[in-house]
């Protein structure tokens, strides 16, 4: 693999701020980000990427590639939790296996955003409809995970103590999905005029906010590293190898569809990423038997850093080989 790809990714300012956040924990600095600020920055990033995606979607239009990409996105969101569940069941009970499988079947919006900034740094173009794929892939894994719990728990005759309408609302109308889809629609409706009006907010501030958000993510990820002692070598290996497997499947689908290199990287990142916000919140509500330290620490302390530091250049290297 071309080492320049790794260096260009590591020397990207937002990535360096992620390392700075981790370093602060390792050296026991008192650096901290007040809790409301990361939430605000998370909402801003979803708003900005959704709005830009809507504007770009109008430019590109909805053709066969867009439709095939959306279908592939939904297929991966449903398939990943199924086959990862059976991998996890080798060592774990059905509750924990289903919760972790749902986590890896869903996506990390921040990983996607970091990948898009990497592409812009390299001057590789990508289409706005990939944001729609992002929105489609966040929720189905929650539903699949709950179905797996119901099918494979020992007391199948017992009624689980949750309401399906509440679960569906949590899956499809949680704040991150609602804001992302809403921003996408508003961007599509307002087009270039809306982009000119909001670009000082949605573009000029974007990388500064991303850097600050990844600083906080570095702090959180470093704090979660101690939880990895509870996961064991099996889950740590799972948290690295399964994203590579999912990204490889994503790249094969992207190649078959005929995506451009930028779109292919973002699609493979979506397939490789794991949710550390939406799905854990839903799993805590609906599968209280599962241990949150397992599915949060693997997604946040292993898979997220792996993808943004190693995965992005690794998947782009695979794309350069395939597309050449």
Explained architecture:
This protein is mostly helical. It is built from 15 helices and no strands. The protein starts with a helix and ends with a helix.
How is the topology of this model organized?
Layout lengths: L2 H8 L2 H14 L9 H25 L3 H25 L5 H12 L3 H14 L7 H9 L1 H13 L11 H9 L2 H28 L3 H19 L3 H30 L3 H12 L5 H9 L5 H32 L1
Helix pairs in contact: 1-15, 2-11, 3-10, 3-11, 4-5, 4-7, 4-8, 4-12, 5-8, 5-15, 6-13, 6-15, 7-10, 7-13, 11-15, 12-13, 12-15, 13-15
Pick out the low-confidence regions: none
Q: Tell me, what's the shape? A: globular
Number of strands: 0
Helix coverage percent: over 70%
* Mean pLDDT over the full residue set: 87
* Strand content bin: under 5%
Order of helices and strands: HHHHHHHHHHHHHHH
What's the N-to-C terminus distance?
Answer: 14 Å
Largest sheet: none
Query: What radius of gyration results from the CA coordinates?
Result: 19 Å
> How many distinct helices?
15
Structural class: mainly alpha
What is the structure about, briefly put?
The protein has 324 residues and is mainly α.
Q: Keywords, please?
A:
single chain, 324 residues, mainly alpha
């Amino acid at each position: 693999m071309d080492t320049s790809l790794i260096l260009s990714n590591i020397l990207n300012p937002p990535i360096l701020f992620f390392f700075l956040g981790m370093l602060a924990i390792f050296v026991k600095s008192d650096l901290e980000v007040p809790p409301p600020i990361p939430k605000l920055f998370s909402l801003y990033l979803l708003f900005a990427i959704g709005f830009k995606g809507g504007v770009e979607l109008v430019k590109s239009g909805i053709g066969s590639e867009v439709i095939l990409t959306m279908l592939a996105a939904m297929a991966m969101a449903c398939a990943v939790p199924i086959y990862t569940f059976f991998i996890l069941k080798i060592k774990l009970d059905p509750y924990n296996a289903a919760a972790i499988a749902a986590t890896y079947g869903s996506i990390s919006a921040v990983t996607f955003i970091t990948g898009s900034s990497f592409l812009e740094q390299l001057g590789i173009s990508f289409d706005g409809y990939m944001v729609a794929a992002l929105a489609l892939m966040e929720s189905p894994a929650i539903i699949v995970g709950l179905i797996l719990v119901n099918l494979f728990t020992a007391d199948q005759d017992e009624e689980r103590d949750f309401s399906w309408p509440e679960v569906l609302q949590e899956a499809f109308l949680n704040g991150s999905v609602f804001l992302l889809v809403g921003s996408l629609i508003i961007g599509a409706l307002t087009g270039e005029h809306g982009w000119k009006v909001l670009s000082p907010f949605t573009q000029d501030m974007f990388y500064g906010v991303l850097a600050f958000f990844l600083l906080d993510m570095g702090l959180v990820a470093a704090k979660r590293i101690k939880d990895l002692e509870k996961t064991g070598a099996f889950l740590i290996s799972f948290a690295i190898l399964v994203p590579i497997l999912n990204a490889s499947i994503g790249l094969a689908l992207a190649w078959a569809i005929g995506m451009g290199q930028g779109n292919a990287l973002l699609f493979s990142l979506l397939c490789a990423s794991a949710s550390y916000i939406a799905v854990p919140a839903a799993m805590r509500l609906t599968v209280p038997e599962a241990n949150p330290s397992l599915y949060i620490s693997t997604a946040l302390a292993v898979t997220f850093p792996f993808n943004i530091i190693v995965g992005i250049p690794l998947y782009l290297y695979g794309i350069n080989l395939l597309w050449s």
